Amino acid sequence: MPKNKTHSGTKKRIKVSGSGKLLREKAGKRHLLEKKSSEHTRRLAGQTEIAPQDDKRVRRMLGI
Kind and range of the H or E element at 55? Predict the structure, then answer.
């Protein structure tokens, strides 16, 4: 039986924490930052957990 392949796009975007949580970067901090307020860009910094609705699907894509 062949092995399942990990989804390449997902493995580049999502990190698994030590406790097993799935972490992602927040969207909207790549470009057009001049017009966004400093408060807004600070809020977009750091990582956040994947939504519970997406957890099962993303884990399947990562082969976890």
Answer: helix 52-62
pLDDT tens, residue by residue, 24-38: 999 999 999 999 999
Asked if residue 64 lies in contact with residue 16, where contact means CB atoms within 8 angstroms, the answer is yes
Q: Is residue 3 part of a domain?
A: no
As a dihedral over the C-alpha atoms of residue 40, residue 53, residue 20, residue 60, rounded to 10 degrees, the angle is -120
From residue 58, alpha-carbon distances to 21, 47, 62 in Å are: 11, 16, 6
For the entire predicted model, the pTM comes to 0.84
Q: Output the pLDDT for position 44.
A: 96
Let me know: does 10 contact 61? Beta carbons within 8 Å: yes
Domain membership of residue 32 (yes or no) is yes
In sequence order, the β-bridge partners of residue 25 are 47
